Structures are given as structure tokens and as C-alpha cells.
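chain below, 187 aa
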Amino acid sequence: MAKKDVKAPEVETNARAGALVNMVLTALMAGVVFVVTYFLRIPMPGSNGGIINLGDLAVYITAILLANPWAAIAASLGSGLMNISIGLFHYAPATFIIKGTMGLIVSGFAKNGSPAMFKLGTLIAGIIMLGGYFVYDLFFFRAGENLAWVIAIDGLVGNIIQALVCVLLSWIIYKPMKSLKNRLMPQ
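prediction:
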């Protein structure tokens, strides 16, 4: 007579519970990204609706706390929906892709727990943000070629400030966030 495997249902239940926890945390962190980006923003005078915000910091915190693809999903949703909520519909598609990529990159670099790898990931993500919006501005506003360059360069100035501030702040809070993750979500 064959022995029944009593652990199979338990494993399936644990997998479902883990997936549910990931979905709930992803929704929570998408909300955090949205709120931080929405409330901690400064409009850029003279730009095409551009803003400087601390949303990238929330993306980096999300990448510390969540594994992929959950970090990328939370970053995409929170940032993209924030653009839509303030009427920057034309930036939502770019933001969805750029911020999701940033979350994916930083989460991938942060997963081994090395502060140096996390720092490298944030630097790469910052460059992706700068390049992504610069290229998007060039192509989106290409109706007047000279105007496109002016808008893209104008946006680049604010994005450089945003990237530097968010990267540096993320380095400062990396250890406390990693400690929080270890206490709340032990491996």
C-alpha cells in the first residue's frame, strides 16, 4: 500500500499564503510610492509640468523590502498612478516603464544584502531615470525639434537633483530599512 504524502497540501497552502502576502505588500508599497511622490513634490517652474519629488526614494525602499517582480510592480503602479492623479497623463506610460525598471534593478541588486550592491543598483537606477525621461521628452515633444531639446534639457536639470537627493537619502536609510525587513519578514 502506498503511503500518502501529507505535506503536499501544507506546501500548497504555504505557497498560496506567500503569494497573498506578496500581493498585499505590493499594493501597500504601491500606495506608499504614490503618497510619497504625491505629497513630497515640488513643481518645476518653466517646465512642461515637471516636478521634483521623493518618489524615487520610496521606489528604493520598496526594492529593499520586496523581491522581484513585486518591487517593480509596486514602483510602476504607485508612480504611474500619481502622474495620472495630477494630470500628467502624457508622462504616465514613461513613468510606468521607467520606475518599474528602477524597482527591478534595485531589488535585484539589493537581494544579496550587500550595501555596496544596493548603492550600485541605485546609481544605475538613477541613470535609467535620467536617460529614460530625457529620451521620452525628446520623442514625445518632437513636434518642434528645437523645442524638444529645450524641454528635454529643462527636465534633465530637475531630474538630476531628484536622482542625487533620492540616491543619497536611500543610502542613509538602507540599514534601518534592511533591519526592518529582517524583523518583519524573516527569511
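The chain has a mean pLDDT of 88. The two ends are 38 Å apart (CA to CA).
thats it, cya
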